[in-house]
Batch of 3 targets.
Target 1
Amino acid sequence: MKGANTELPLVCWLEDCRKDSTPLVGGKCSSLGEMINAGIRVPPGFALTTEGYRRFMAGAGIGREIQSLLAGLDTQDMDALEKTSETIRGMIEAQPLSTELEDLIAEYYRKLSLRCCLPAAPVAVRSSATAEDLVGASFAGQQDTYLWIRGADEVLHHIRRCISSLYTGRAIAYRANQKFDDALLAISVGVQKMANSFTAGVMFTLHPGNGDRSVIVIDSNYGFGESVVSGEVTPDNFIVNKVTLDILERTISQKDIYYTVDTKNQTNQVIDVPPERQKVQSLMDDEITALAWMGKQIEKHYGRPMDIEWAVDKDLPFGGNIFILQARPETVWSEKRKTNTAGKGTSAMDYILASMLEGKKLS
Amino acid sequence: MKFPNPHDVKDIPGTEGWERMYPYQYQFTTDDPERKEYEEKTFWFYDGLHYPEPIYPFDTIWDEAWYLALSQYNNRIFQVPPVRGVDHRIINGHVYISPVPVEDPEEIGRRVPNFTERAGYYYQNWDELEAKWKVKIEATIKELEELQIPGLPELEDISVVTDAVGESKGFHLIKAYDDLINLGIKCWQYHFEFLNLGYAAYVFFLDFMQKQFPSIPLQRVTQMISGIDVIMFRSDDELKKLAKKAIDLGVEQAITCSQEWAPVEAALNKLPKGQEWLAALEEARYPWFYISSGTGWSHNDCCWNDDLSIPLMGITTYIKKIKEGADIERPLTKVRAERDRITEEYRALIESEEDRKTFDELLGTAKTVFPYVENHLFYVEHWFHSVFWGKIREVAAIMKEHGLIKEIDDIWLLRRDEIKQGLWDVVTAWATGVKPRGGAVWPPEIEWRKGVMEKFRAWDAPAAIGTAPEVIQEPFTIVLWGVTNSSLADWSEVQNIDDPDSITELKGFAGSPGIVEGRARVCHSAKEIRELQEGEILVSPTTSPSWAPAFAKINACVTDVGGIMSHAAIVCREYGMPAVVGTGHATKIIKTGMLLRIDGTTGIVSIER
C-alpha cells in the first residue's frame, strides 16, 4: 500500500479494504473489499481514502471558508441552501489536486486499465461516505455516482465532483438536522471498473414486502441498474428460495426503457427497449440461480440481510459474468425488530390451540 | 366463484328414486325449511379423494363410519374449539362433505379448556397411547380374521344337541353379520382416535412456518418431516426383497415368464429353488400383501393377496431394474441429508430464540405424529378393509345360495341394513322350510340400481356445490383434500371452460419439487399401471400404496385429488421426483401420450397441444 509520507494510504486497491476499513475508505468501498476477500465477484477498482480526501482539502485550504459559509446558513431556507451548496461545490471542484495525489490516482487508474485489458478502462466513480451504509443511518443517494468515466483526467475531475457532493443542499441540511459536526466529515471515493451490463438490478436477501428471510428477491432490467434503482421502469421480479435456490415466482414486466452507454461520448443514456424485447425475461434462469447463490454467500458473510446491486456483464461468458456492484445491510426490516410469530407460548400445544382459535387459513 | 345450489341439481333421467340407495340423512332436502337453508348456505365439496367413483350403497358403511368417528372426536371427545364435525351428503352417488364451524366466539371459548386438557393428554402421552392403539387395532383385525360366517345346514350338527348349544346357525349368521359390521365400525372408531390431532400438529407446523416465511413452499415444510420410516413403504420393500431373492436364487426367469400369477407359480414349482422363493412370498404376504390396489375404500379395490398378479407386476419391474444395474432403494440417505440441511437452514433463518424454540417443539410433535398419520392407513384401509370385503363376500355367497342375489357382487348394491333384512328373510325361511320372499324383491331392484350406478358414473360431478366461504379454514380440508380458496377458484375456472381440449395449463398443489417433461400415461386404477412405460408421467385420480411399483418407472406424477399430505405427494418426495397433486381435473383433460411439463415447485402442469 502506498502511503507517501503518512502511515495511512491516500489511495488503495479495493481488495486491500476490509470491513474495519470504513473510517479510511467509507462504507461502500470497505464493503466491496470485504466482498472481494469473501470470494464474491466484484469489478476491480481502487479508492481515494479519507486520508486522501483530507490531504486534498488541506491542500485546497478552503475549510475555513466553507465553515463560515455554513455558519450563518438557515437550512430551512431552500434558496439560500441551494446557493450556498452551489458556491461550496464550485469551490471544491475548481481546486486542483496536488501533483502527488494526481500522480498516485493516475497510476492506480493505469494499473486498473491494465488489469481490465482495456486502453482506458471505463469506470464508475462514486462517493463512499463514512456515515453512509451503516445500519440505521442510510442516506443512500445523497452522494453522487458518475458512470462510464474514461481517462485519468476525467477520473480526477469526477473524484472532485464526488467530494463536492458532500455539500449538496440535502446533505448540508441533513447534517444540520442531525447536528453532525462537519469537522469530522470525511469521504472516500471509489473508482471501479464499469460492468458493461447487459442486465442489471437489485437483490434483497429477504422479501422487502413481508420480511421473509427465506427468500431472495431480485429486480432486473436490461442495461445498467439505474433504471431499476431509480424506479423508472417496472423491473422483472424474481423470488428465489434462499435455502434451495428454486425460483418460486417470476413476474415479467413490460420494460420500456433502459440505460446504456452512448458509445460516441461515453456517457450514460436512456433508450427505448425494442418492442419485441419489452416483455421478455431480462435475466436468464441460470443467472437468477447463480445470482441468488451469490446473494446467499453475501448474507452469510455479513451475517444479516443485505441490499445488493448487481450486473451481468455482456462481454463475458456465463459463469464469470455476474458482478456485485454494491452490498449494504438491509435497513427497513432489520430495524423493525421482528415480534415473535408465536407470542403464544412456545409449547406445541400452546401454538396449536392458539392457531386453531385464530383460524388462519393456509393458502 | 360460482357453484350450483344443492337443491337445483337435477336427477339424471331414469334414476329417479335413487335416494333410497343411501341412508335418508344423506339427502339434500327441501321439506325441512331450516335444513334447506342450512344446506344452501353451506359449502359442500366433492370428496373425490375417498370416492373417485360414485359410491355403492353398501360402501356407504365407511362413509357413515367416518362421518361418526371424525365428528365425534372433533366435537364430543376432544372438542376442537372452532370446528364441530364434518357433515355429509350424497348427490347422484357422489359424496359431498362440509366442515361445520362453531360460530359463537363464546362457545369457542368454552370449548378451549376441554380441548387443552383432552388433546393435551394425547399429545403428551402420544407414544404410549399409540402403542395401546396398535394392540387394539391388531386385536380388532384378529377378531375379524377369526370371524366365521356360518352357512345354513339342512340339519344342525348333533353337537348342537349334545353340547346343548341352544342357538342355531340361523341366529349365528345374523349375529356374525352384526359382529362383522360392528367390527368395521369399531375399527373406524380407532382410525380417528389419533388422526385429527395428528393432522392438527402437522397442519399448524405448516402454519407456523408460513408465518415465519410467507413465501415458503409447503413441500419444503413437509420435506422436514420426510425420510421417517413408516410401514406404508413396507409392502413395497417386501416386493424389492422378493425381487432380490429371485435373482439370488436364480429363479427370476420363472417369475418374469408371465404377467399372470398362475403360470408363474407353476413354473416356480418346477424349480428346486422355486419352492424356497414361494415360501418367502408366503411369509411376506401376511400381512404385507393386505394392501389394496386402490384406496381401500371401495369393495372394488382388491388387495394383493386377492390377486397375486398385482404384486407380481411390481416384483417383475424390480427384477428388471436390478438387472439393468439400477438402484431400487428409495434414496433415503440422500432424502434425509437434504431434509436435515433444509431444516437447519430454515431454522437458522428464524430470528428470535423463542420462535426457534416453538419451531423445535412443533417440528418434534409433527415428527411424533407422522408415523401414525401414515401407518393407520395400512391397518385400517388396507389390512382391515381387505379382510372385511372378503367376509362380506362370504355373506353374499349365502344370499346368492338362497336366491336373494344373482351374483356375489350384487351385494354391493344393497345398503347394509337391507342386507340384514335380507338375512332375516333367509334365516326365517330356512328355519321354517319355505322360500324366502327376497328372491323376487332384490334381483329386479339390484338390476335397476346397476343402471343407476352406470348413469351416476357418466355424471360430471361438480367439484363443489353450495356457497363458497370467504376463506377455507378447516385444516384437514386443506391438507388432505387440497381444498383452498385458490384451488377452488382454479377448479371453478376449469369447470366453466366449454372446450376442455383448449386447456394448456392446470394448476394444483406443489406436491414434490422439481421440473420434468415427458409423455402422459393416464391410469384410473392400479391394474392400469402395468401399461406404464419407463419415464412416463403418471396421471391418475389419486394413488395409494399399492401403486408403489409405478413410482419406480415414472418421472413425475399428477393427481386429480389430494393435498400435500396425499399419498402421491409423500411418495414422490421420498423418490425425489416432481408431483403436482389436487389438480381437480387432470384425468379428464390430459390424454395418454400428451407431452407434459410438470413443475412440482410451483404446482403447474403445462400441456403441449
Target 2
Amino acid sequence: MSKSALIAHSRWLAACFVAAACWWSPSAQAVVGTVDSAPAATLLLPYFETDLANPNGPQTTVRVSNASATAMLLHATLYTDLGIPTLQFDTYLTGYDSVDIDMRLLFKGIVPQTASAGQDPTDRISPRGPLSQDINFASCSGILPPPGLPPTTPGGLPANTTWDAGTLEAIRAAHTGQASTLWSGQCGAVAHGDNIARGYMTIDTVNNCTMRYPSDPGYFAPNFAGDVTYQNVLYGTATTIDRMQRRTVLTENLVPVEAWYNDPVVSTPGIQTFYGRFNGNTAIDGREALGTVWTSRNMEGSAYAYETQFVVWRDPGQAVSPFACGGALPAPFPLTTREVAAFDEEENVTFASNNLIPYATQLVDGASLSPYTFGIVRFDLGLADGTVRQGYVSSRILRLGAYDAMTFPGALLMTAPQAQCTGANPSPPMCANVPPPSIGVGRDIQF
Amino acid sequence: MSSFRHGFVVALFALFAAFFLPQTSHAAIGALDDTPGSSLLFPYFEVDLDHPTGRDTVLTVQNASATAMLAHTIVWSDEGVASAIFDIYLTGYDIMSFSMRDVLDGSLPLTGSDGQDPTDTISPQGPFSQDINFASCSTFLPYAPGTIPAPAGMTPADLRKALTGAPTSGVAAGMCWGRNVGDGHARGYVTMDLVNRCSDLKPGDAGYLDSPLNTLTSQNSLLGSFVIANPDTHEWFVDNALSIEAAYTNDPSVTTPGNYTFYGRYNGWNAADRREPLPTTWMAQGELDTSSLIVWRDTKTDGQPHACGTAPGYYPLGQEGFATFGPDSSYGSPGAGTPLANAAQLVPASVLGTVGSKLGQFFANLNASVPAAGGNPPADPAAAQGYIGVMRPSLGEMPMTPGHRAVPLDSALDAQHYVPHN
C-alpha cells in the first residue's frame, strides 16, 4: 500500500466510530425468505455420523469460513437426532479465517484452538492476516483458547480436554441413544444399537462467548441484547468419509440460514423462523425458516449399483425433553409427514407411508421411499395433519464399495412461511410480506 | 473492553448496519437459490470424444409442476456461440436425463407433446401430470436420430467440430465456434428456457426475447442438475443447474430497461427476458494448489462463429480481482492476467493466486467492462455475472473428487466492486 493510500486509509479508519463496521467488507446481499447460497449468520450441518469406536467408520469434518474481513465469534451447538442440545462451544475467526471442526475429535473433547486478541496477544493461536480484523472479545477470557494447548507429547493429543472424562462419556452416550448422566440417566437420542454418534449441529454468529444453548433464555433477545448477531458472513462445507462400510467420501455445503434484524419476513410474530421452536414463534431470532416442500434425486440399483440415502432434517416444532430409555419417544416424535411422493421418469407416482421420516435428523434409505430406479422424490415435511414444519433434504447417491458418491442439494419448492400463508383466506397480517411460491407449485401434487 | 463500551459499540454497529449494509429483498429475484426457475444454466460440460469411457457430462431437467412445459435447449460453445438448438417436452412432474456425448452423436432427448405422441409412448403421462399438445412442435418433435435441428445446416459432425474449436464444414463453413484446446474434448455450456412454442430460435433472434414475450415464458417450473464424470479416473463434479427465476409480476429489478438481466446481452439490455442475473463475486473453500474451478462468465456480447485463429470480440474477459487466503487468514499473492478469459472453462484454482498453505479460501470478483459490449449494461457497465464451482482432488487414498458450488457474495443486480487487497 502506498504512503498516500495508507494515510487515506488511516483517516478513513479514524472517521469510523464503529470498529466492526469499519472492517466490513461488502459481502452477500441477505435475501431472507429463501434458501439461497450466500454467507449466513447461522449454518446448519443437517446430519452427522461419527463412529466412536472405529476411526475407519463414518466420520464427519466441517470447515467453516469467514467471508468477511471482520472478526467473528461463532457459537456451535450439537443436537441429538431428536433435537436435544448436548454440548456447545465457541470459536473465534479473524477476518477471512477458516476453522476445521473434526467431529471425531469433538467427541474426544478437543475443540478448535482459537482465541480473540485479548486471549492471544502474540497472535499465535488465531493469527491475523494483513487484511483481517483481530479484536478482543473480553467475554471469552477464561473460555478461549479451549484446554488442550499444547499437547503434552509432540504429535500427541492434549492432556486436557474441554470437557472432563465423565462429561465426555455422557455426551457420547447421549448421541448414541444410551442412558446419559447429562439427563440423570435418561436418553435423548434414538438407540440404533451401534457406536455411531448421530445428530446435527448449528453454528451462530454471536457477540460474546456464552454457555447458553439456543433454547436458553437470553440467547435471543430484542434490541441486540442477546448473544446472537445478524452478521451474514459464514459459509462452510462438510466432508463425510466412510472407509469401512460404505467406502464413500462426499462433500456438501452447510445449509446457510440468513438473518436480518428488522425484515418483516423474519421478524413478524407467528411467522416460522429457524429457531422458532425455542422462542414460541415470536421470530425474535430473525433467522429465515428453511423449506417445507422439497424435491431431490434418487437412483437405486441399475448397472452401477447405486444406492440413495436422503439426508432429512426436520424441525420438531417444540423443545424436546429427555425420556426414559427403552420407553416411548418423547413428544412430538415420531414425526409424521404430510406427503412423500416418488416419481419415476415416466411420471408414475408412488406415495410413501407418512411415518418413514420420524426424527429430527436421519439418513433415509431411498428404496424405502421410492420403488423406482431413477426419478425424484417430493417431500412435504409438514405433519400429516397439515401442520407446517420446516426441514431440509439432500440426496447422497452412493456406489457402494467404489468410493463413488454424489451429493445433490435438495431443491426448494416452498418455504415454511409460504406454506403457512398459501391458501389462507383471509390472509393473516403476518403473511403480508411473504412472497408467494412459484406459479404451479403447490403443497399438493394434483393440478 | 468494558461491557458498557462493548454494548455501545454493538449499538452503533446496528445503526451503521441499518444505513450501509445491503438491503434485503422480499422476493427471491436476485438470490441464487435452488428453486424452480424459468431458465436453467448448466454452466459447463466436457466430453472426451476420443475415449468413450472418458469424461462425459450428464444433464437432468425436471418439471417441478403438474403443468406440461416446453424447455428450449441451446448448446453453446465455450466462447458463447449457439451451436445446437432443440426442444424438450416435459409432462407434469417429468424428469429427463441425457448425456452430452449422446447429443454430440446426434441422439437428442426423445420427447413429444400430446399431438406428436397421442399414444403416450414417447412422453408418458403420469396420473397427476398434464399432457398437452404444442402444435408448433409438429415439425420438430420427436427428433430423428442423427439430426441436429438448428442452427440450419448443423450436423453432429459439425457440432463436434464447433465444440472442439475445429472449423465447421457445412454451416459457417471454415469458421470456428469455440476454443481449440487440442485435446479432442468438446466444451461449452447449456441453457434451457421455458417457452410457449417449439422453434429454431436462439436469444438474439427476433421473436425469442421480444417484448411482449413472443416465445419465452416466466413460469418458474424448471429444476436441473449436472454431473461431470470421468469413470476412468473416478472424478465427479455434481451440482444443481443454476435456476434463473423470472418475474411474472412487474418486479422493477428485472423489468427496468437498462438493468442487468440474465439475457440482457441479447435484447439490448431492455429487460425483456425478465430474468434475474447471476452473481458477480464468489468465494470458495478448496485446495489452492490442486483444486480446479468450473467457471462460466457472461461475455456481454452475442457470440458468432469467427475466423479461425482469431479471437472472439469479447476476448479476453478480465476481472476486477482475485484474492487467496490460507486457513489462518494469511493473504496470498493474487493471480494476474486474464486466466478466466472465456465464456466457459475448467481451470486450476491456482490461477486465482497462491498462498503459503494448502487449504484455504479463494475470492473472485468476475466483474469486467467488456469493450465489445459498448458500455453495457447501462445500469453498471462494469458488472458481469458468472458462476464458479470447485472440483477438488482426491482426498488421501480416496480416488474420489467431491466438488461443490462456490458461495456467491452478491447479485449482478447490485454488483459488488470490491476486492480484498493490501
Target 3
Amino acid sequence: MEIKTNDYRVWVDGSTIHYEGTMRLSSPEDYAPIQALMKQVLEANEGRIDLDLMGLEFLNSSGINLFAKFTIEVRNRGGVGLGVCGTARIPWHAKSLPNLKKLFPALDLQIL
Amino acid sequence: MPVPHPLKQRLRLKTFRGKFILTVGTVVLISMLVSTALALRNAKLLASDATAEIQKGLTRASQEYLTNYIQTTALRVDAVINETHAEVITLAATMQDLIDRPQIANALGSALAGGAQPSTPLQYDPVGKWAQNAKGAPSVLSVWGYLLGSNKKPRPDVNRLIRETAVFDLVSRSLMTGGARKLQFYYVGPKDRPIMRTTPYADQAQTYDKLYPGHNAANFWDFFFPGVYEGWQAWLRDISLMPVKDSYITTTKPYVDATTAALIVSYFYPLWTKDRSNVAGMTAVDITLDQLAEIVQSVKVADTGFAFLAMENGNVLAVRPEGEAVLGLVTANAASGRGVTGVDRTLTKSGQAEIRSLDIPTDDRTRIMRVNLLRNGVSAPYIVTLQRLNKRNLWNGKVIVGSQLVLGFVVPESEIYAAMTAAQASVDRSLQRILQSAAITGILTLLVLLIVIVAISKPISAGLQELAAAARRLKDKDYSVRIAAPSDDEVGEVGIAFNRMAADISYHTENLEQRVKDRTRELAAASQEIFLLNERLKQENLRLGSELDVARRMQKMVLPKSSELEAVQRLDIATFMEPAEEVGGDYYDVLQNGGNVKVGIGDVTGHGLESGVLMLMVQSVARALEEQGESDPVLFLSVLNRVIYKNIVRTESDKYLTLAFVDFREDGEVILSGQHEEVLIVRNGGAVERIDTGDLGFPVGLEPDISSFVATRSLRLAGGDVLILHTDGITEAENPLGELYGIERLCESAARYANDSAELIKTGIIADLMTYIANQKIHDDITLVVVKQR
C-alpha cells in the first residue's frame, strides 16, 4: 500500500505507516485517501500500530488534524497500541506531537 | 524527375530486386567459396597424409633394404677376405707341417733339388749384392747379401732352409691358379735367415733395390715389417696379447707393393718353430685393392649409390672413382722411405664437411644417417649406411693391433625417394585437376544460380515495383491510382493498405470543400455552446464570489477596528492579517472590558468559508464570555472549547483550532493561556524571550473537555517591552527555494524594529517576511499582533 505524489509519500510496512516529504493539502477532504489508508492499517492490526514521521518535513494544520483524529479513533477503539516516532530536528514535531500524547496518554511518543 | 527506363530500373543495384539479387548472390557465392575451399583443403590434407604415409613406408622399406644389403655385402667382403685367408692358411699349414717334420722337408727339398724341382739356379747379382734364381721358374727366391757366404753362395744354414722350404713353390703355384683372386703368395724365413720366396716370379730384388734402397743392408723383417716379428713372438709368450683370438692372420695397411708396384694389402700368417718357442717366418698373400674394390664396387644402390670400404681411422681402402668424388676424398701418398709406403685417403680429410664429421660406428650395429653433400656447388641430401666388419689383426707399421674395416653405402636421397616424389607429383596433378574441375563447376553453378535468382526475383519484386510506380503516380497527384489484385503476402497487405489510403486521399481531396463547410458549421455550433457555458460559468462564479464576499465581509467586520485598538490607553497595539485564500482560518481579537484587555489569537485548520464561520463562532463566544466577565483564563478557555466542540459536532465539521489568550490585567500582570505558537517578548533593550505555549492548553474543538490541559503563565511587561503574537503562516512561509522562514528570523526581525512604535514594528516585520517570500506562493494565512507596553 502506497500513496505517492511529487511532494510526499506514504507507505505501509507491516503495521508501521511511514510518512515522507511535505504535506500541505488544503482541506480535510484532500487528506481522505491517507486517512483511508491509516484506517485500513488500523483494521488489519490487533496489537500495535506505529507512525513513522521521521521523514515528514512539513505538515499543515489540516494534516495535524488528521493525526489528532486518528489518535482519538485508536484511543476510542481500545486494545490497540499506538507508537509515534518523530524528530526534534523538525519544528512541527516538537510543537504538535505532544498534543497526540495528551489525547491518548497510552500513546508511545518518541521524539528523537 | 525523369522516369527511368523499366529495364534499367530493374537492374539497378538501388532497386529492391537488385539488392535481393546481390544479397542472395553474395550468400550463394560465399557458401560456394567456403565449401570449395573446405573440399580443397580436405583433398590437400588427404594428399599430404598419403604422402607422409608413403614417405614413412618408403623410409622404413629403404632402411630395411639398405640394412639388409649392407649386412649381406659385409658378409660377402668378410667371406672373400676369409677365402683369401683360407688359402694363406692352407699354404701356412703346409709350411708349418714341414717345419714340424724336418726330415720330410729335407727329403722333399732334396728331391726337388735333385732335378724334380721346377726352379732355376741361384745367381749372384754383383750390382745388388744379393742372389736370386733366374727367370723361368714359377716362383722367385731372393737371398739377401747378408745371408751369403764369402763365396757369394748362401750360407749352409741358409741353404738348408732353402731346401726345406722349396715346397712353397709347388703349393703356392697351385693355390695361385684357383680360389680367390690374388696378386701373389710369398714366404719369408725366420729373422736369422729371412730368405724370400714369391709366386709368381718377378724381378723381386731388382724392384726392391729401386723402390727401397738400402734394404739389402738391413734385416728384412726390421726393414720392411718392423714390429711384426716381435708382435708374434709376444703372442707366443702371452696368448692374451692377440687382438683377435684364434686368428694369427695379420693384415697390413694398404701400401704400394715393392714387387708389383701395385696398391695392395697383405695378409701375413706366422710360422712357428717345431717346439713353438719362436717365430719361424711367415707365409703371406697380397691382394690388390682393385680386387677388393671389385667386391665393394659390385654394390649398386639405386642409380648412383655406391659402396666404400674404410679402415677404422676412416682411411678409405676401396671406392669407385665417382664415389671418391662424391665423398670428396683426397689421395695423399705417405712419405716414402723405409718399409712399405701406405696410402692415405681418409674420410677425416674429405672436402665434404659432413663427411669429415661422419660418425664411424664403434659397434656392430648398422648405422643409417642423412648427410648433405655438395655436388657441383649444390647441397644435396644423401643417405649414408655404415656397417663394421669382423675384427682383424692389423700391423699399423709399428705394432700389431686389432682393427675392423667399415663398409659404407652412400645413396642420394632423391633416388631413394624417387618413387615417392613421382607419387607426390601425381597427387599434385590430381589436386590441380580437382581444383580446376571445382572452379569450373563453381562458375557453372553460380551462373545457373544467378539465372534462377534473377528469375525468382522477378515475381518477388514485381509487387514492390508496382507499389513504387503507384506511389510515384500518387505523388504526381493522380489519386485514381490503385494496385491491381495485390498478392496475399506482406507486399499484398501493403498494397491493400495503399489502396485504402489512396481511396482516403482521393475522398478527402475531392470532398475537401464540403468538409470545410461541415466543419465550419460544427465549429460555429461548438462556439455557441462554449459561449453559453461561459455565461453559466460567469453566473456561477458570481454566485460563489458573492458568497465568499459575504464571508470575507463578515470576517472583516468582526475584526477589531483600529479605533478600538487606539482606545486602549496603556498599550500600543498593531495588527496584520492576510488570508491565504478569500477567507482565512486565522483569528485574532482585542477585547476590552473595564481595565482588562484580552488579546486572542488562533488558527482554524483549513481555509475557506467553513473555517471563516468557525472563526466567527469563536469570536462570538469569546466576546460573550468576556462580556460576561469571566476572569479565570482556564475556565474561559474550557467553556469556549465546550461551546465550540458542541457546535462542531452539530455542524458535522471536522475542524478545530489552536487558540491562546493574553490577559493584560489592570495591575500590570500579563497572563498567558491556551496552546498556540510561541509568544515573543522583546524586552526594552533588545533581548528576545520565546515563550512556549504547548503546556498551556489544547486545540479547541477536538475534545469535549480540555480543562485538565489548560494552564496559565504570568509575566510582567516594563515600559517599551513588546509582546508579539503570530500564526504559523509567518514561521512556515517559504522562500523560492522552499526554505521555511522560521522563528529565529522572526525574532531577529522583531528585535530589529522593537524600538519603534507597534505599527512600525508590524510593518517592518511584514516587510522582512515579504522580502523573504519574494514571488513564492503564500500557503497559509498570515496574522501578526504587536503589543507594546507604553
